[in-house]
Amino acid sequence: MSIRIIPQDQLEKGEKTTAEMIPPLLFPRLKNLYSRRAARLRDLAAKNPLGDYLRFAAVIAEAQEIVLYDHPLHIDLHARLTQSASEGKPPLNIHTLPRDPHWQRLLHSLIAELKPEMS
């Protein structure tokens, strides 16, 4: 898979206005994404007037990592993305991508992780 930058005039001339023109989603490598982010935020907080806020953001990043490992996402998006493309709809269209209760579990778990830190 490669990433191409398409000039704006070429996009405007193109006849295709379906999901085929939208670049595929690039999923981050989650193995150490949140721990790297938390470490970077803590480093930035050391000599920054917004240090308290950056440390708070680091705590959130660490909680996100814990929640990610406790509640991994097991949804195959390939079929939904293919269906959206065939119908000419955006890949994250609310009508083709129904809401999943998984996000509520993630939110409750994230709150549970953060609650002891916020007292």
Task: Write a structural description.
This protein has 119 residues and is mainly alpha-helical. The protein has one domain. Helices cover 52% and strands 0% of the residues. The protein contains 5 helices and no strands. It has helices at 8-13, 33-45, 51-70, 78-87, 102-114. It is extended, with a radius of gyration of 19 Å. The mean pLDDT is 81. This is Formate dehydrogenase accessory protein FdhE. Residues 22-118 form the FdhE N-terminal domain. One of its GO terms (cellular component) is cytosol. One of its GO terms (biological process) is protein maturation.
Provide the descriptors you would attach to this structure in a database record.
52% helix; FdhE-like_sf; ferric iron binding; Formate dehydrogenase accessory protein FdhE; Formate_DH_accessory; FdhE_N
